[in-house]
């Protein structure tokens, strides 16, 4: 085990026996309690926590809008027709809305929508027009 002398801070590799002396200052270090250094564990914990926070903040949370917002967008897209439509037509419109929202999510993050909704609307209209009918 490697220990640090409490007096001079010099490190020494030891085997547990009585009467241990520090090689550097000759201090008797056999009566002290020793703790292993926690620098590696602390650094690993901090790096892991920081990485987890960054992944959550910038990768995971940016991929989806809140469910309420997505639902409202889909309802507005699907129900934009004033006339009665068949179930088959409704299914096609639903697929088109899903396609448009999915493609818009790739282009405009939710944080961007909160800053500027006109860009989202422009991109969504563009995607509605380009998704297959």
Would you give an account of this structure?
With 133 residues, the chain is mainly α. The chain has a domain at 67-130. Helix content is 56%, strand content 5%. The chain contains five helices and two strands. The chain has a two-stranded antiparallel ribbon. Strand 1 and strand 2 (11-13) form a beta hairpin. Helix 2 crosses helix 3 (87-107) and helix 3 (87-107) packs across helix 5 (117-130). The longest helix has 22 residues, at 39-60. The chain is rod-shaped, with a radius of gyration of 32 Å. The termini are far apart.
Range of helix content: 55-70%
Largest β sheet strand count, sense and barrel closure:
2 strands, antiparallel
Number of strands: 2
Strand content: under 5%
Secondary-structure-derived class: mainly alpha
Write the layout of secondary structure elements.
Blueprint: E1 2-4, E2 11-13, H1 39-60, H2 67-78, H3 87-107, H4 110-115, H5 117-130
Antiparallel strand pairs: 1-2
Helix pairs in contact: 2-3, 3-5
């Amino acid at each position: 085990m490697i220990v640090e002398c409490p007096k001079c801070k010099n490190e020494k590799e030891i085997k547990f026996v009585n009467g241990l002396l520090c090689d550097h200052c000759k201090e008797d270090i056999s009566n002290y309690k020793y703790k292993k250094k926690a620098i590696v564990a602390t650094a690993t914990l901090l790096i892991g926590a920081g990485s987890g926070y960054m992944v959550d903040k910038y990768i995971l949370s940016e991929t989806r809008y809140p469910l309420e917002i997505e639902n409202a967008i889909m309802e507005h897209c699907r129900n934009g027709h004033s006339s009665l439509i068949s179930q088959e037509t409704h299914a096609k419109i639903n697929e088109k809305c899903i396609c448009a929202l999915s493609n818009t999510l790739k282009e405009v993050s939710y944080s961007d929508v909160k800053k500027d909704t006109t860009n989202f609307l422009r991109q969504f209209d563009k995607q509605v027009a380009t998704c297959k009918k």
